[in-house]
Each structure stands twice: as C-alpha cells, then as structure tokens.
Specification:
Part of the ABC transporter FtsEX involved in cellular division. The chain is an alpha+beta fold and about 300 residues long. About 70% of the residues lie in helices and about 10% in strands.
C-alpha cells in the first residue's frame, strides 16, 4: 500500500465532508474533555478524602449546668471531675484512639468568639454556657462507631459527634457531580460515534465509483477501508488534541489563574499538573482508537469487502 495514496484520500475525504468532520471533531473534543474532567474530579475527591479524613476528629461534648435543664442526656446534671477522669482514662485505653485533647469552657468560648465574632449571639454568651469536650483523633476515621457506642449515653456526656459525617455529605455531592459529568460524557460519546459512522458512510457513498473499481482490480478489503478509517482517526485525534488543550487551560484557569482557587481555598489540596499530564495519553489514545474502530465496523457492513 502506498502511503501517498492513503494520505491523499484522507485529505479528499476530510475536505468533501468538511461540515460533518467539524461536527465529529467538536463532539469528540467535548466528550473527551468531560471524560478527562471526570477522571480529574475523581482524583481530586480521592486527594481531598486522604487529606481531610486524616484530620477528622471525634468530639465528645460534656454536659454543663444549662444542659441539665434542657437536654435529656444531661438529666443527671453537669459532668463531674470523676466522670471526666473516667472518660479520659477509657479513651486513652482504646486501641483505635491516636490522641485525646481536652477543650475547656474558656477555650471553647475564645474559639467561638474568634470564629463567630459577627454573630449576634457572641455578645450574649458567657464561658459557663459553653461545653467542655474531648477532641479525639482516631487511627482509622472509619472506627467512629467504636467511640460512639462506648460513650454515647454515658453519664456526663451530652453527645458524641463525628466530623466525618459532614465531610461525607460534601464528598457525596462531589461524587454526584462526577457521575453527572460521566452521564453527559456518555451521551456526547454516543453522539460522536453516530456522527463518525454517518461521516464514514457518506464519504464511502461519495466515492463508491472509486471503491467499485478498486474491488474489480483485486484490491484488498483493508486497502479500500484504510483511507476511510484513517479519516475518522485523524478527525478523532484532532478532537482529542483539543480536549487535552481544554483540560490544560481549564486546570490553569480554575486552579492557578483566573479563578485562582489554590489561593482562595488554601485548606484544599488541589491536584497537581502531574495528574493532568498522566491523563493526556489516555485521552489521545481513546480519540484515535474510538473513531478508527467505529469506522472499521461501519465499513465492514457498508462496503461488503
């Protein structure tokens, strides 16, 4: 097979079906951009889970005098020194506990004043209304129920709270967004495949005379199919290159510049450029193989070679 012939046929095919080729390029670019974005979002969620779950604390809030009148868990009154000592001692004996930090009412009051200084309640609260607590760092954040079961309902304990529950809601939202992006990507991918098949068939129909002559002179099936498959592969590869460009620009604009989330949200560990670059070969390979395979199977039936 002469490479010059194949290349010339590719150029002819792309020019003849310029509008449909453009539609293929755009649909492939958009679908693969969504595909790459969903992969990166999944990496981001995984990175955030590793970062935040490592910092998750379980908090055991102790009863104070005001709780005794309003909270049924504190019906026996405010926590005593003996009860605090027993709670701390039991916590330190638990193998799932990494460290225990005591927070007094004065410390809780100062923290509240710092974090919610603009709140109208800040001026009316007093230190004795705040709750003492133990902040527990677990070796495995998934073992929260071990602490909750051991201390929930104990005398002097108002409640046991796990920060992981709040984070789970956030990560659930992000994963839902990721699934939505994958669903849109799948739809765009189906549209792209349909466009590729139609483009290849239109191209084959417009050159049916040439392909008929080639069959008569004994040209092999692959020799006849090669230009059409290559056309689809080239159009897909252009779309894949655009998708890679969109991902690179998007990451730079959203995280580094433009929105500059890395500066505005310092508490979030954003994925680096290495995570983006490792996805680009997969996107390019998909953009090349997907149209080529779609064209191959479409031509097998259409050309009957």
């Amino acid at each position: 097979m002469r490479a010059q012939f194949v290349l010339s046929e590719i150029g002819v095919g792309l020019r003849r079906n310029l509008t449909m080729t453009f539609a293929v390029v755009v649909s492939v670019a958009l679908s693969l951009t969504l595909f790459g974005a969903s992969l990166l979002l999944s990496d981001q969620v995984t990175s955030m889970k590793g970062y935040w779950y490592d910092k998750v604390n379980v908090s055991i809030f102790l009863c104070n005098k005001s709780d005794a009148a309003s909270d049924p868990n504190c019906a026996k009154g405010a926590v005593t020194e003996d009860q605090k000592g027993q709670i701390k001692g039991d916590l330190e004996k638990m193998t799932v506990v990494d460290s225990v930090t005591y927070e007094s009412q004065d410390t809780a009051y100062k923290l509240y004043k710092e974090q919610f200084s603009d709140s109208p309640l800040a001026s009316s609260l007093t230190p004795d209304q705040m709750q003492e607590s133990y902040r527990i760092k677990l070796k495995d954040p998934e073992k929260y129920k071990v602490v909750a079961t051991a201390f929930d309902g104990r005398d002097g304990v108002q409640s046991v709270q796990d920060q992981k529950g709040t984070l789970d809601n956030l990560f659930g939202l992000l994963e839902g967004m990721n699934l939505a992006a994958l669903a849109v990507m799948a739809l765009m991918l189906i549209v792209a495949l349909m466009l590729i098949v139609n483009t290849v068939r239109v191209s084959a129909f417009s050159r049916r005379r040439e392909t008929g002559i080639m069959r008569l002179v004994g040209a092999s099936g692959f020799y006849i199919q090669a230009p059409f498959i290559a056309e689809a592969a080239v159009a897909g590869l252009i779309g894949g290159a655009l998708a890679c460009g969109f991902l690179l620009v998007g990451r730079y604009f959203i995280i580094d510049a433009g929105l500059a989330l890395s500066e505005k949200l310092n508490l979030i560990s954003f994925i680096g450029w290495d995570a983006v670059l490792t996805k680009l070969p997969l996107i390019l390979a998909t953009s090349l193989l997907m149209p080529a395979l779609a064209a191959f199977f479409a031509l097998r039936k259409y050309l009957k070679v």
